[in-house]
Amino acid sequence: MSTFVDAFISILDIKLMFFMLTGTIGGMVAGALPGFSATMAVALMVPFTFTMSPVAGLATLGAIYTGAIFGGCFSAILVNTPGTPSSIATTFDGYPMTKQGRGEEALITATFASWGGGVVGVLTLMFLSIPLAKVALKFGPPEYFWVSIFGLTIIASLASKSIMKGIAGGIFGLMVSMIGVAPIGGDVRFTMGISTFQGGVEILSVLIGFFCIPEMLRIAGELKNEKFVAVDLEKQTDVLKKSFLNNFQKPMNFIKSSVIGSFIGVLPGAGGNIANLVAYNEAQRSSDDPDSFGKGNPAGVVATESSNNATVGSSMVPLLTLGIPGSPAAAVLYGALMIQGLKPGPQLFTTNADVSYGFMMALMVAQFMILVLGLLAGKHVYNGVTKIPDRILVPAVILLTVLGSYAIRNNVMDVIVMFVSGLIAYTLKEFGFHPGPIVLGLILGPIAEKGFVQGYLMGQASGAPLMIFFTRPISIVLIIITILSASWPLFRMYRENRKKGVVNK
Amino acid sequence: MIKNTDLYGGIFMILVSLLFYSGVDKLNEYSRLFPQAIIVLLIASGLGLIIKSIKKPTIATLFSIDDKKSFILVAVITLAWVLLFKHIGFVVTSMASLTGLLFALSDVKNSKGFIKSFIIAGVLIASLYLLFSKVLYVPFPRGVFF
Prior knowledge:
By secondary structure, chain A is an all-alpha fold. Chain A contains 23 helices and two strands.
């Protein structure tokens, strides 16, 4: 305990606090800009930390990362565009809340959830690093394959009206994720002669296109009769209290989502982009009113935002304990540690304990910074955005999507992909396909393929390539969870039909 | 237009799977192992939707847009924007497209409305250009202009 106290004292420095505050604000702005991911924000700031002390440098980068993951919720809630992939599911209920005139409540709810989730994630990093790292090491390719299959069972929750269309959409997303170089075979596939596709379809561009462009086209198409009112400007009262209660009146949703985020964050290769969808699915599954999800239920915002911020701390577990960067942002921090002359891994806790514990404490302080900044900024950002007329908002958001999708890789093709994805998403939405399952397929596709083909190769060594997927203990547990998760909607449907039958009788 | 959305969705999925199927032949065993399975699943889901469209179709009104002119203008101007971005340069394309979008959606369709759109576009582009290129070091395409 004294180590933590010493670490806390070591970061109580005005200059360091200023760096962290600036980093948190900068991260929030970057996260709110569509296309500007948390990793990019952290990477961009690494050169500025060269001259800082190791603790100050890492603390600033940690603050940027925390701010960026949190900042993603602003654009997700206000303009239906996930600022980072970690906020995909925030759009499902956050944007409907904005349309109902409850955007401020959504933002403040997200602030409390992000803060709480972030604190749980950092506590996980502080106290459960070693055992969780050991579990994460036991995950091999077959386990990753089953994790992705489990992730795909979320489709049933995301599909809303038609499970069949949800499944088809998910498979379509998986198919699109195959574009580019095969992860194991090495062949260049399905690029249609477009050289940019060799590196795969840029997921952030597709995300921006899928969520933002259809909404902007829809608003433009309904401007004539002023039928579409993007935001009801009726003043809300007791927003702070409501938002606090959304999180902590029935804390089970918040706790479960934070734990889900903390665990998924530990797994190398997984992160907030998967955690927010898994937590959303679980919140909907266990809710008394699952049908209200997707229509402005604050529990959806709580689940996604607490889980994605919980991954911030826990994603540092493999980096600090094993020296394995488990997420792209952790990889950038790995570089930052090396620049400071430190070697990530177990020795960080022995030879450089002051740095590792100081970094953990800084991450904790950053969670409180996003709480204060979120509470202060939420109302003003919401009021600012709602005062912009739709006739200006639509072109301005389109400008941001163009800029954001270009900034990802400084590639014009990503901008074209973004817009074409938007047109496809608009058409598919008209056909009754929800964008959620498609995006889920896109995210999980590479993990599923890599896990499957690597597992298959491992199995070939024993002569039965497919048996390896069904015989390992963790795989068996994951298969059982997958079956339960997939059959839950069917069970719920059966139970509802039975209830209806009893009422009709 | 009132249509059977299951049928359209099913046809779309089968067309996509055929497009991907045409690229599978040349791949080695490990590159095609997973895509092959996904193609089969995509065909199956497409066929499933087509069968549903016959047995229990979902009928919906497609593309019911009140303001078709604004919708098409936004789509066309944005398409031109993303296609010309590289060749003409960021500043010129964005100024023209954003002014066009603002003016197309504006309810004041005269020279005053155009000037207002031009000024708003200028302010937005200048501020975001400065943020992205000077603070975040994003190099924008210069094209034939700047």
